[in-house]
Structures are given as C-alpha cells and as structure tokens.
Amino acid sequence: MQNPEIDITNYLKENTPNMISEWLDSIYSMEKPYTSFIYAPLYKDELRADSKQTASLIIDFFSPDKEQFEISLTDWLNHMYERRMENEVPLPEVLMTLDKLRYQFLKWAGKFAIKTESFTKKDYYEIVHSINFAFDIINEKFADLYFTQIMRHLSAQQSMIEEISTPIISITDQIAILPLVGHVDDDRAKHLMETATARCSQLNIDYLCIDLSAITTFETTLVEMLFSLADVLKLLGIELVLSGITPQMAQQMVLLDTDIEIPAYHSLKEVLHEKV
Predict the structure, then answer these.
(1) Which residues on neighbouring strands pair with residue 266, listed in sequence order?
(2) Distance CA 146, CA 85 (A)
(3) Beta-bridge mates of residue 170
(4) Domain range for residue 178?
(5) What CATH number is associated with residue 185?
(6) pLDDT averages per 10-residue partition of the chain, 276 residues
(7) Which string of b and e fits 127-164 if b means at least 16 CB within 10 Å?
(8) Which residues form the STAS domain (predicted)?
C-alpha cells in the first residue's frame, strides 16, 4: 500500500475540477451575493483559474518538498493580492471564498476516507488537520499582506489630505496665504504649526496671511496655535496676519491675554490691498 498521504493527494488532484465546480456553485447560489463584481457569473472563467491556483497551492502543502509550497505561496499571494486589491474586493469576501474552498477539500477528503478501507481514523484526522492548517496559513498570510498594504495606502492618503488641508499659496514674492477650513483640533493645529513654519521658510516671504472666514469653530486650540505661530514666524523675519476675523473671534483672542499682537483684517481683500 502506498503512503496514505500520497493516496489522498493524488485523489484530491484528480478531483480538483469537481471541487472547483461545486465551489463555484456554492458561490453563485448564495442568497446574498458578494459585493465585488469579480464574483459575478460573467467572470466565472477568471474565478475558476484563481481557484485552480489555490487548490494547487493546498495540494503542494502535502508535498515532502516544503520549499515548493513556499514558492507556490509567494506566487499565489502576489497574484491574488494584486487582483483583489485592483478590483477593491473586501477582505471578508476573500476569506469567505477561501473557506468555501476549504469546505470542498474537507468534503472530498471525507469521501476518500469512506471509500478507502485502509484509510484509518488516524489518517483521516491527520489529513483534516493538514487541510485546515494549510488554509489557515494562506488566510493569515493574505490578511497580513492586505492589512499592511491597506495601512500604507491609508498613510499615503492621510499625507495627501494633510497637504491639501494646509494649502499655503504664494501670491507674490512677499506674501502667501493659508485658507483654513472646518475645525482645527490638537493634531491638526500641531500639523499646521509644523507645515506653515517649514513652508514659509522655503518660500522666503515677508508675510503669511491666514484666512479664517471658513472656520466652523474658533476654539482655544486654534487661538493658541496662531499666537505660537506668530511668535515663531517673527523669529524668521515673517509677519503673520489674519483675515476673515469676526467680532467673536477677536474677543476670544483678547481673552487669551498674550503679549503677542497679530494684525487682523476683516477680509483677504483688505490684506492684499495693504500688503501687496
């Protein structure tokens, strides 16, 4: 008799087309279809090809040559990740489809155990354990890769948002404007302070005008940041001026009781008229 693991490996290889057909049927018969279009019947051939690669990867796990499994796993991760991310497939849907294929492997392993008298309970236990272990590995590797790349993507988006939220625009060689929109919390105030200082130094300007006309809430955090920024810019030879100041804003700035004075104007037009 051959090694039980070799016997069932050959059996799973032979029945891979059957497993994949049943796997596809389970996907297309779901009451609530997946949200991603790659699971639509129109893309059945592509999905079948993906599942063949996944099934081949699982079968490679049973090979004595563990290096082959690692090579297959790397190829599988690269292909599956690129295709799923390119089409914005939600991670839960990826894991759910893998679990449906896991079910098929376990089901056909059970069929083999029933039809093969020499296949012991211990053999069956070990093959079930191996199938689950193999699927757990690829689930974990894929989820880890997905999470890592998503975090990089979010970080890049956050950097872009921060750049957009601090648009220092050079009007002339002497003056630049920074229009603030929305709410300024502690984190944004810190970012504004750092970005404005660095950018003004690069531009080599004489004046920075911060326009507050689109600010939704004028809180102590923003007021303190403005005074701190005015102090730092003064050391660089740059004067901070404000536009879009309302009477309520002016009152809050007075209440902070600081020796730093910041020229304030009702509108940006007034600033430009005086400074340009």
Answers:
(1) none
(2) 8
(3) 176
(4) 169-275
(5) 3.30.750.24
(6) 73 94 91 84 89 92 83 88 81 91 95 90 92 93 84 68 68 88 86 89 91 86 91 93 88 78 86 76
(7) beebbeebbeebeebbeeebeeeeeeeeeeeeeeeeee
(8) 165-275
